[in-house]
Amino acid sequence: MLYLCCGELRLPWAFQVSRGKGTTSPAQLALPLLRTVPATLLKGNRRPRLHADGGFESAEFVWGMLSRGLDIVVGVRCTQKLEGGQQIRDLMVRGSLVKPTGLDQAMCVSWVWLSHNKEPEQ
Questions:
Q1: Per-residue pLDDT tens digits for 12-42
Q2: Which residues neighbour 118 within 8 Å (Cβ) at sequence distance 6 or greater?
Q3: Which of 17, 28, 88, 93 lies 20 to 30 Å from 53, alpha-carbon distance?
Q4: Quick check: 122 pLDDT over 60?
Q5: pTM
Q6: DSSP 56-101
Q7: All structural domains of the chain with their residue ranges
Q8: Is 64 exposed, middle or buried (0-12, 13-18, 19+ CB in 10 A)?
């Protein structure tokens, strides 16, 4: 589901249905949806930002968004490999600039702690 948000206002824009394993990935479905957003909404005084969960961390998706000129915030697994063989979980400082494998673009990394059933989770 693609929403356009401005402050508290959330407008559903478009959606695609994923058929599951062995079919087009959600990230591959999202790229054509994002192309339906008019260029006039992507330019102007406000800089648009795309927020996506961890299912959209593929290099193909990230490059697709960067090529559209969008700033992106994407969730990634802590096991994501970085240039040099490290993983995200090995980082000790928030705000580190890193290059994930498969991308030439440096990215700023941060993290949050989620609590489910009183058990901290990264």
A1: 888 777 777 777 777 888 888 888 887 777 7
A2: none
A3: 93
A4: no
A5: 0.69
A6: G--HHHHHHHHHTT-EEEE---TT-BBTTS-BGGG--STTEEE-BT
A7: 7-75, 76-122
A8: buried
